[in-house]
Amino acid sequence: MSTRKITLPEDWVVVLLGLGTIFLSLLGLIVPKPNFNWTNVSEFQTTVLQSANLQAIGYQFLLVLLTAVIGALLLGKSIRATVIVVPVVFLLSLIALFFAGNSVVKEFNLEAVIFSLAIGLLISNLFKLPIWFKAVLNAEFYVKIGLILLGTSVIFGDILEAGARGLVQALLVVLSVWYFAFWLCKKLKIDKEMSLMLSSAVSICGVSAAIATSGAIEGDSKKLSYVISLVLITAIPMMIFMPYIADWMGLSQAVTGAWLGGSIDTTGAVVASGSLVGEEALKISTIVKFSQNVLLGIAAFAISIYWTYNSAKKAEHVEKPTLSIIWERFPKFVLGFVFASLLFSFAVSEDTYANVKDSLKSIQGLWFALAFTSIGLETNIKDLFGHESKKPLYAFLIAQTFNIAITLVIAVILFG
């Protein structure tokens, strides 16, 4: 009698594992959040390498390894190879988190994912990794789990706290910049995958938006890495110079804050630049950026439906895609993201949320770091920065310039 392995589609496995992590936290099994912040070598040794902190890192490792093994089991993949590869990826990602935790690095808003990608690229381009090793790397799997955990931080009640003007600006900026960027990409004949990721990144909330969009359309990891690199690199000069430009233009703190929050793509850079201006600017910039972050879930859901419908239509050629075909192609992890958001918005108490949010946020960041380490390990650097990358670069810079201009106009109208 033959035995047959029972496997599940990856998206459903991701939903089970992502929500499983969330429910374990809600039931009291909270993985402590490690501290990666340090200023000098002495502080690194006494804080980051402290026994209690190393223990917290160890707990996160066990969670990741257990999740990966269960995932491999449900997906019918090699458990032995998973047990070998995952610790290596975790160790490399941990090094990236160490780098990103440095105070000087934080000033430049360089996130852990960029170090993860760089470390992975360095290793994969200096050494030839075994085929079986690369076969186990599953960046998409890691990203999707991280995105489901991201849903726990998208709280609908916070939209109201963000204020009407902040939400109105976020809607106007996201819609206008997204459509302009997408139109521009189409004019430059950039492929639709890259166009969607680039448009979402420049209009919504940078790295998270690019990752969410890539997950929704099952995008090319190399294209995602390129878009994220653009986001992080351009955020640095914007963070530094925009506050001084606003001062030169004589803008009020409220207008400046709205301008910074609506145009700078990463939350960390928004906070840093807002702090350079003043307390009111910091508050307004954070509100506006948070309003844009909240729209991420809606945008990811809409993009999922758009991509699924168009993919089905293309595959069917003649017949109009049916609901069953759309459902079959729809990325199910988005449902996990939405469920997590609704759960934490309406069912989880404030006290419970306060207890678990730091842990879940840390685990989410870890999954993203693991994903980009994996992307780096399976990517040839020539593919990432080849000659074909010029058009997306031009599109991003032009769209970002449009973003800065239109956001300034809207900020002056709403907050002036």
From TrEMBL:
Keyword Cell membrane attached: yes
TM stretches of this protein: 12-31, 57-75, 82-100, 112-129, 141-160, 166-184, 196-217, 223-246, 258-278, 290-309, 330-348, 363-381, 393-415
Cellular localisation: Cell membrane
Topology in membrane: Multi-pass membrane protein
Domain of life: Bacteria
Keyword Phosphoprotein: no
Chief location: membrane
Pfam families: Cons_hypoth698
One GO CC term on file: plasma membrane
Keywords noted in UniProt: Cell membrane, Membrane, Transmembrane, Transmembrane helix
Family indicated by similarity: Belongs to the UPF0324 family.
PANTHER family the UniProt entry points to: INNER MEMBRANE PROTEIN YEIH-RELATED (PTHR30106), UPF0324 MEMBRANE PROTEIN FN0533 (PTHR30106:SF1)
Name by which UniProt lists this protein: Uncharacterized protein family UPF0324
Source species of the chain: Sphingobacterium deserti
